[in-house]
Design brief:
Length: about 60
């Protein structure tokens, strides 16, 4: 299993803010074909924000 890398940007989505955002996202559905465990929406959004705020290349995305 791949370890989660920590990219400190000083900006994290707070739990209170995430509760507000999560209302607009669909419930994740597990594929009947199996496969990898889905990444959380929060981790994905924080990765996108990291790219935008750090002006990093997409290849550097966590």
């Amino acid at each position: 299993m791949m370890k989660k890398r920590d990219y400190a940007t000083g900006k994290k989505i707070t739990d209170k803010r995430w509760e507000q955002i999560a209302l607009f996202l669909p419930e994740p559905v597990q594929s009947s074909k199996g496969g990898q465990k889905r990444a959380s929406y929060q981790d994905c959004l924080e990765g996108v924000l990291w790219i935008c705020l750090a002006c990093a290349l997409v290849g550097d995305m966590p």
